[in-house]
Amino acid sequence: MKQKPFTAAQGRKLQANFAHAEATGESAAPVVKYFCPWGGATWLISECGPDGRMFGLCDLGHGCPELGYVMLSDLTGLRGPAGLTIERDLYFTADKSLSEYAEEARAAGRITA
Question: 24 in a domain, yes or no?
Fold first, then answer.
């Protein structure tokens, strides 16, 4: 990942969402969207723990988007053709809850945000 994985404000929101989810079991709206420029993978991330474990809607481009965990280090370490990296969508702003995105993605077979 050539850019920072998230802004300072996004990092604070991801950590606050993690603490809230740990206390209540409720997930929040996605804060960041990552995508793979050489394939169909997309991640909508709503929380990030102190160990870099992130929770969100994960779609590896195989038609089976699912809620789950991914390590920040795994995303930042991925390299594609010609050294391409996973990118953060600089213009993404969530307009619904993570569960609404998940429901839509399951119906479409991919994340459409």
Answer: yes
